[in-house]
Amino acid sequence: MLSIGELSRQTGVKIPTIRYYEQMGLITAPERTAGNQRRYSRAGLGRLSFIKHARDLGLKIEDIRELLTLSAQPDMPCAEANRIAANHLAAIRARIARLQSLEAELARMSTCSAENIKDCYVIESLSNHALCAKNHT
Protein backbone atom coordinates (compact mmCIF):
# COMPACT_ATOMS: atom_id res chain seq x y z
CA MET A 1 0.00 0.00 0.00
CA LEU A 2 1.22 3.47 -0.88
CA SER A 3 0.80 6.77 0.91
CA ILE A 4 -0.43 9.71 -1.15
CA GLY A 5 3.09 11.15 -1.03
CA GLU A 6 4.61 7.94 -2.40
CA LEU A 7 1.92 7.74 -5.06
CA SER A 8 2.73 11.31 -6.03
CA ARG A 9 6.46 10.59 -6.23
CA GLN A 10 6.00 7.44 -8.32
CA THR A 11 3.60 9.01 -10.82
CA GLY A 12 4.73 12.63 -10.89
CA VAL A 13 1.17 13.75 -10.09
CA LYS A 14 0.90 16.43 -7.42
CA ILE A 15 -1.01 15.60 -4.26
CA PRO A 16 -3.78 18.20 -4.84
CA THR A 17 -4.30 16.75 -8.32
CA ILE A 18 -4.60 13.24 -6.89
CA ARG A 19 -7.26 14.51 -4.49
CA TYR A 20 -9.01 16.27 -7.38
CA TYR A 21 -9.07 13.03 -9.39
CA GLU A 22 -10.62 11.33 -6.36
CA GLN A 23 -13.30 14.02 -6.16
CA MET A 24 -13.95 13.67 -9.90
CA GLY A 25 -14.34 9.92 -9.49
CA LEU A 26 -11.44 9.08 -11.81
CA ILE A 27 -9.72 7.16 -9.05
CA THR A 28 -11.55 5.44 -6.25
CA ALA A 29 -11.26 6.70 -2.73
CA PRO A 30 -8.45 4.73 -1.12
CA GLU A 31 -8.52 2.77 2.07
CA ARG A 32 -7.64 4.75 5.16
CA THR A 33 -5.47 3.84 8.11
CA ALA A 34 -6.59 4.16 11.72
CA GLY A 35 -4.91 7.60 11.59
CA ASN A 36 -7.08 8.49 8.55
CA GLN A 37 -4.17 8.45 6.10
CA ARG A 38 -4.91 7.43 2.53
CA ARG A 39 -3.38 4.12 1.39
CA TYR A 40 -3.37 3.35 -2.33
CA SER A 41 -3.08 -0.08 -3.92
CA ARG A 42 -0.89 -1.04 -6.87
CA ALA A 43 -4.07 -0.95 -8.98
CA GLY A 44 -4.56 2.67 -7.88
CA LEU A 45 -0.99 3.39 -8.94
CA GLY A 46 -1.65 1.87 -12.36
CA ARG A 47 -4.88 3.82 -12.79
CA LEU A 48 -3.23 7.11 -11.82
CA SER A 49 -0.34 6.39 -14.21
CA PHE A 50 -2.90 5.80 -16.99
CA ILE A 51 -4.61 9.12 -16.19
CA LYS A 52 -1.30 11.01 -16.09
CA HIS A 53 -0.19 9.58 -19.41
CA ALA A 54 -3.54 10.48 -20.98
CA ARG A 55 -3.31 14.02 -19.57
CA ASP A 56 0.27 14.34 -20.83
CA LEU A 57 -1.11 13.55 -24.28
CA GLY A 58 -3.68 16.32 -23.81
CA LEU A 59 -6.79 14.19 -23.49
CA LYS A 60 -9.78 15.80 -21.80
CA ILE A 61 -11.06 14.50 -18.47
CA GLU A 62 -14.31 13.34 -20.13
CA ASP A 63 -12.34 11.27 -22.66
CA ILE A 64 -10.15 9.83 -19.92
CA ARG A 65 -13.23 8.86 -17.95
CA GLU A 66 -14.63 7.08 -21.00
CA LEU A 67 -11.31 5.33 -21.70
CA LEU A 68 -11.12 4.18 -18.08
CA THR A 69 -14.63 2.76 -18.38
CA LEU A 70 -13.64 0.98 -21.59
CA SER A 71 -10.45 -0.38 -20.01
CA ALA A 72 -12.55 -2.08 -17.35
CA GLN A 73 -14.24 -4.14 -20.09
CA PRO A 74 -11.33 -5.97 -21.77
CA ASP A 75 -13.49 -8.08 -24.10
CA MET A 76 -15.20 -5.06 -25.69
CA PRO A 77 -14.24 -3.99 -29.23
CA CYS A 78 -11.78 -1.12 -29.25
CA ALA A 79 -13.63 0.99 -31.85
CA GLU A 80 -14.70 3.53 -29.22
CA ALA A 81 -11.16 3.92 -27.89
CA ASN A 82 -9.93 4.37 -31.45
CA ARG A 83 -12.62 7.03 -32.04
CA ILE A 84 -11.53 8.97 -28.97
CA ALA A 85 -7.87 8.84 -30.02
CA ALA A 86 -8.69 9.76 -33.65
CA ASN A 87 -10.81 12.74 -32.56
CA HIS A 88 -8.03 13.96 -30.30
CA LEU A 89 -5.47 13.51 -33.09
CA ALA A 90 -7.64 15.58 -35.46
CA ALA A 91 -7.91 18.35 -32.85
CA ILE A 92 -4.12 18.31 -32.32
CA ARG A 93 -3.50 18.51 -36.06
CA ALA A 94 -5.90 21.45 -36.37
CA ARG A 95 -4.12 23.20 -33.51
CA ILE A 96 -0.72 22.55 -35.14
CA ALA A 97 -1.97 23.99 -38.44
CA ARG A 98 -3.21 27.12 -36.64
CA LEU A 99 0.09 27.48 -34.78
CA GLN A 100 2.04 27.11 -38.05
CA SER A 101 -0.09 29.85 -39.59
CA LEU A 102 0.57 32.10 -36.60
CA GLU A 103 4.27 31.30 -36.79
CA ALA A 104 4.41 32.28 -40.46
CA GLU A 105 2.57 35.54 -39.81
CA LEU A 106 4.77 36.47 -36.86
CA ALA A 107 7.91 35.61 -38.83
CA ARG A 108 6.69 37.85 -41.66
CA MET A 109 5.83 40.68 -39.24
CA SER A 110 9.08 40.53 -37.30
CA THR A 111 11.30 41.38 -40.26
CA CYS A 112 10.93 45.09 -39.49
CA SER A 113 14.16 47.06 -39.90
CA ALA A 114 12.82 50.46 -38.84
CA GLU A 115 14.77 52.41 -36.28
CA ASN A 116 11.81 54.10 -34.60
CA ILE A 117 8.48 52.87 -33.31
CA LYS A 118 6.67 55.37 -35.55
CA ASP A 119 7.95 53.39 -38.55
CA CYS A 120 7.80 49.92 -36.95
CA TYR A 121 6.01 47.36 -39.11
CA VAL A 122 5.24 45.16 -36.09
CA ILE A 123 3.29 47.97 -34.45
CA GLU A 124 1.67 48.99 -37.73
CA SER A 125 0.56 45.47 -38.64
CA LEU A 126 -0.84 44.86 -35.14
CA SER A 127 -2.81 48.09 -35.53
CA ASN A 128 -4.10 47.17 -38.99
CA HIS A 129 -5.24 43.56 -39.43
CA ALA A 130 -5.54 44.13 -43.20
CA LEU A 131 -1.73 44.08 -43.39
CA CYS A 132 -1.66 40.41 -42.33
CA ALA A 133 -0.98 37.90 -45.08
CA LYS A 134 -3.72 35.52 -43.84
CA ASN A 135 -6.75 35.67 -41.62
CA HIS A 136 -5.68 34.11 -38.34
CA THR A 137 -8.59 34.92 -36.07
End-to-end separation = 51 Å
Low-confidence stretches: none
Question: What name does CATH use for the topology of the largest domain?
Answer: Multidrug-efflux Transporter Regulator, Chain: A, Domain 2
- Radius of gyration based on Cα positions: 24 Å
Which outline best applies? elongated
Strand segment tally = 2
Spatially, the strands of the biggest sheet line up as 1-2
Mean pLDDT: 92
CATH architecture grouping of the largest domain: Orthogonal Bundle
Which sequence of SSEs, written as H and E, runs from N to C? HHEEHHHH
Largest β sheet strand count, sense and barrel closure: 2 strands, antiparallel
Strand content: under 5%
Can you give the helix content as a percent range?
Answer: 55-70%
Count of individual domains:
2
CATH class designation of the largest domain: Mainly Alpha
